[in-house]
Design a protein that fits this description.
- The chain is of the alpha/beta class and about 300 residues long.
- It has eleven helices and ten strands.
- It has a five-stranded parallel β-sheet with strand order 1-5-4-2-3. Strands 6-10-9-7-8 form a five-stranded parallel β-sheet.
- Strand 2, helix 2 and strand 3 form a beta-alpha-beta unit.
- Helix 5 packs across helix 10.
- It is globular and about 55 Å long.
- The two termini are about 30 Å apart.
C-alpha cells in the first residue's frame, strides 16, 4: 500500500475538509439499477455543495452492443464534469446512497479520465446521516470547471483481452494444469455465484460466464453498507481466488458497475494495475459467437 493514495474518506474527515477555504468538489451519484434516477433523492437532501451527476446519462455511454454501461464519450464526459465544477488537479469526492456501487464506478471513471485526486465517501449518504452531519436542499451553482478528460489512465479490457486474461485463470495456486498458474492472469467474475454458474440470469439474455473466469462475488469483498475489510483482509480474499502480486488481474460483472467496486477493492489491496472489463457480461453475450461456460468449472 505504500505510495498508493487512499481512495476512501470517512464522513468526519470529509466534514472537516468541507470547512476549509477551498473544499473538495462533491459529486452526488446516487443511483438505482432499475431506476428511477437519484436526482429526486438529491433534491430531497444532499451534502452541502454537492452537485448531482447521473451515472447512466453523464458518466456512461448509451447502452448497446458495447454493454449496458459502456465507456462515456470523452467530450460529453468532460462537459458534464466541467458543468459540475470539476477543476484540473482539484480534489473530488463522490458518494452514493451507501452501497458504494455507483460511487465506485464514478471514482473509476474519473480516474480512467485522468483525474487522479478523487475519493469515495466511505458508507456514502447513509454514513453521513448516521454521523449526524449537515445536509441541505440548497442547489449549488458551481463555477465552471476546467478539467481535461484524457482517457486511458486506468487499464480497460475489451472482450478479446478479457478472454485472453481468462485463459490463464483456470488454475488456482497449487492446482495442476497447463502453463504456469503463478504467471498467468486472473479474470474475476464478481457476480453472485448462481449467475456465474448459469443457474439464473435476471437481466441479460444468456446465462453463464466467460470461460476461464474465476468467481469471487462482490459480497465477499464489500459489505452491504459499502464498507471494505482492511487491506490485509482484502488480500486474503483475493489470494483465495488466485490473485497474487505476480499475476495480471481484471474484473467483470453484469455491466461494469459492480466490477468497478471490485477494482476499487483491488486498489485498496495494493493492485492499482487491476483492469476493468467495462462491457462485462452484457457486452460478452452481445456476440453469439463468444463461448459461454456454466457450472462451477472455469
Amino acid at each position: 500500500m505504500s505510495g498508493i493514495p487512499n481512495p476512501l474518506v470517512e464522513p468526519a474527515d470529509l466534514a472537516a475538509e468541507l470547512d476549509r477555504p477551498d473544499p473538495p468538489t462533491l459529486l452526488d451519484v446516487r443511483w438505482r439499477l432499475a431506476g428511477p434516477s437519484g436526482r429526486a433523492d438529491h433534491a430531497a437532501g444532499h451534502l452541502p455543495g454537492a452537485v448531482f451527476l447521473d451515472l447512466d446519462a453523464d458518466l456512461c455511454g448509451p447502452p448497446g452492443p458495447a454493454g449496458r454501461h459502456p465507456l462515456p464519450d470523452p467530450v460529453r464526459l468532460q462537459a458534464a464534469l466541467r458543468a459540475a465544477g470539476v477543476r484540473a488537479g482539484h480534489p473530488v469526492v463522490v458518494y452514493d446512497g451507501g452501497d458504494g456501487l455507483a460511487a465506485a464506478r464514478a471514482w473509476w471513471t474519473l480516474r480512467w479520465a485522468g483525474h487522479r485526486p478523487v475519493r469515495v465517501l466511505s458508507g456514502g449518504w447513509s454514513a453521513w446521516l448516521a454521523a449526524g452531519l449537515t445536509t441541505t436542499t440548497d442547489q449549488p451553482t458551481p463555477a465552471p470547471g476546467d478539467v481535461v478528460v484524457r482517457p486511458g489512465a486506468l487499464p480497460v479490457l475489451d472482450a478479446a483481452q478479457a478472454a485472453g486474461l481468462a485463459a490463464g485463470s483456470g488454475h488456482r495456486p497449487g492446482e495442476s494444469g497447463g502453463g504456469d498458474p503463478e504467471r498467468a492472469g486472473v479474470l474475476l467474475d464478481v457476480r453472485a455465484a448462481a449467475r456465474y454458474r448459469g443457474e439464473t440470469e435476471p437481466i441479460d439474455p444468456v446465462a453463464g460466464h466467460v470461460p476461464g473466469a474465476v468467481n469471487l462475488p462482490l459480497t465477499d469483498l464489500v459489505g452491504a453498507d459499502g464498507r471494505y475489510p482492511d487491506a490485509a483482509g482484502l488480500r486474503r480474499r483475493f489470494a483465495g481466488a488466485g490473485v497474487t502480486d505476480a499475476r495480471p488481474v481484471g474484473a467483470y460483472c453484469g455491466s461494469g458497475v459492480t466490477a468497478a467496486q471490485a477494482v476499487l477493492a483491488l486498489h485498496l489491496a495494493g493492485r492499482p494495475d487491476a483492469a476493468l472489463y467495462v462491457g462485462s457480461w452484457s457486452n460478452w453475450v452481445a456476440d453469439p459467437a463468444r463461448p459461454v461456460a456454466t457450472g462451477d468449472g472455469t
